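Continuing the series of single-chain predictions for the mutant panel. This is the parent chain; the variants come on the following pages.
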Amino acid sequence: MNQQLDLLSQVRETLGNPQHLIPSIEKQSEEITTLRKQLEQFEQQSLNQQKDQLATQVKELNGVNFLAAVVQTGSAESLKTLAFNLRQVVPNLVLVLGAEIDGKPQLAVMLDDEIAKIGKLNATTLVRELAKEIQGGGGGQPFFATAGGKNVAGLAAAIAKAEGLINGIKLNGG
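Parent structure:
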């Protein structure tokens, strides 16, 4: 009983010693839900802004629209969303995105469906090669693949390496 009373005291103290404990907990729970929704909205706005900004940085390289960049995102899911959003607005895209998420490097490689179908480029093969720069590994599908690693400092090198790899592949004319 004493342990339970001590726990109850700790809970009350943590919540600022409210007179009525249950309504206070319910109120905090509602606030948390509201804040999470606001955070999701802000993250979506940030992704949209980054998408618009990144779309202006696309360049023609070896017959494709190429973009490789380090971005700011809070989760692997957001990185994936950003990649898919860019693919929708940029035709014939070869995309490599890098981000530091929770102190670890992440890479995402996205290819336009037509580029993936031709078969001269494969997102999984590309991400595995780039992942060497971040001391990691990954995989996925021919059009979209991700990798995680240990070396955050290698993100810039992975992004730089991507351009050389795309430039070195014969994409047109056999």
